[in-house]
Design a protein that fits this description.
Number of strands: 2
Strand content: under 5%
Helix content: 55-70%
Shape: globular
Oligomer: single chain
Order of helices and strands: HHHHHEEHHHHHHHHH
Largest sheet: 2 strands, antiparallel
Number of helices: 14
């Protein structure tokens, strides 16, 4: 990797020693991912238009969305490419945790790619059959969860950490495997459900990237972890670099995805990013904190579950439309207002999540 080459030169020129620091490489990863996004996005968007990889718009949704027909989708490949190239430059692939999170990003992204391809190119509105999609997600999450559970270098491989309590650790034993699967798959689908209006999901992902970056850095720093009374996991700090790349790629993509969007991320982006966030939470033992910082994702998912359950049981709908962001649109909120207000809530939840580190 590039950083290893540059760091090895410190014996000839001392300032190259700076490349060993995670914080420095995290900043470089964020900047690199953003620059890469700006470079490749226009070309990818043009290519998606050329091959008619465009979004299919539901006619039962807000009427304002009908004008979005023909907007390129599958832009999530821009994010994945940017993160991957940035990680190849500044990431440490000697860390197994880097491999786990990158595998989640690429694995779930591949599922989303197939789904997007079937929808846009094959003109199949349902895309990949739900059972096939869910089964593939379960398989990938199972492999990652079992790998982490069997990791001999992690003394907390089956432990669930409870926020606000210093030493309240629940050992789930083998039940941690299905729990991890639920977290990773649930996170992936939650981001997917939230990706319904311009810039909403990617903005929230950027916020989550900042919080997760702080969490993994502190958990991987022996002194800070001891001071804050959080679980110390050796080597996990390297995931800060991934979070930096995730932040940079998200902000770069938001430039093109902001209202009115020039491109949508599609399932390749939402499923991939959601899977990566879930894997980050499982690796760092901050699964419950993920539910807080990703509170909007959780609310969006719950709104869909409640809507479906209510309609099947009573024949009535709780919301005008689910996920809940569409409900507010149909109530008269403009799309930009929904986006910004949800971002504000996301920032508040992010700050509250960071507060759990000190309030113990």
């Amino acid at each position: 990797m590039l950083y290893e080459l540059l760091y090895s030169l410190y014996i000839y020129f001392t300032p190259f020693n700076v490349f060993k620091y995670i914080t420095f490489r995290t900043a470089l990863a964020a900047l690199s991912a953003m620059v890469i996004t700006f470079i490749i996005a226009p070309k990818v968007i043009s290519w998606l238009k050329k091959i008619s990889m465009t979004q299919l718009i539901r006619d039962d949704g807000p009427h304002s969305h009908l004008k979005k027909a023909g907007t390129p989708t599958m832009g999530g490949i821009i994010i994945i490419i940017s993160i991957s190239l940035s990680m190849l430059m500044w990431g440490n692939f000697e860390s197994i945790y880097t491999w786990v999170v990158m595998s989640a990003l690429l694995g779930f992204g591949a599922i989303g790619f197939i789904d997007d391809y079937l929808k846009a190119v094959k003109k199949n509105p349902k895309g990949l059959r739900g059972w096939y999609k869910f089964s593939a997600q379960i398989i990938i999450a199972s492999i990652l969860s079992i790998f982490l559970y069997l990791n001999p270098n992690d003394p907390y491989n089956s432990v669930l950490s409870i926020p606000f309590f210093k030493k309240w650790l629940i050992d789930l034993g083998m039940f941690y495997i299905p729990f991890s699967i639920i977290v990773i798959v649930g996170s992936s689908n939650a981001v997917n459900l939230t990706d319904g209006i311009d810039g909403l999901a990617i903005g929230l992902v950027a916020i989550a990237a900042i919080v997760n970056g702080a969490l993994v850095y502190l958990s991987g720093h022996a002194i800070f972890a001891k001071y804050l009374q959080v679980i110390y996991i050796s080597g996990i700090g390297e995931l800060s670099v991934f979070c930096g790349a995730l932040l940079g790629a998200s902000l770069g993509f938001l430039w093109y995805n902001a209202y009115p969007a020039q491109v949508f991320m599609g399932d390749v982006g939402s499923l991939g990013l959601g899977g990566a966030l879930g894997a980050l939470a499982v690796v760092s033992k901050h699964e419950i904190v993920l539910a807080v910082v990703g509170g909007i994702f959780v609310i969006e998912t719950i709104s869909v579950v409640l809507q479906v359950a209510s309609f099947k049981l009573t024949g009535k709908r709780i919301f005008k439309m689910a996920p809940i962001h569409h409900h507010f649109e149909l109530k008269g909120w403009s799309e930009p207002k929904v986006i910004v207000r949800f971002w504000i809530i996301g920032i508040i939840l992010a700050l509250f999540s960071l507060a759990t580190l000190k309030l113990r």
